[in-house]
Amino acid sequence: MDLCGVDLERVPRHVALVMDGNGRWATRQGLKRTEGHAAGELALWDVVYGALDLGIEWITVYAFSTENWKRSADEVKYLMNFNERLLLERTEELNGLGVRIKFAGRRNWRVPKRVIRRQDESIELTKDNRRMTLTMAFNYGGRAEIIDAVKAMVADGVEVDKITEKRLRGYFYDPDMPDPDVMVRTSGEFRISNFLLWEIAYSELIFVDTLWPDFRREDLRDAVIEYQGRERRFGGVRDD
Ligand code: IPE
Ligand code: IPE
Ligand code: MG
Question: What is the arithmetic mean of pLDDT over 136-143?
Answer without folding.
Answer: 98
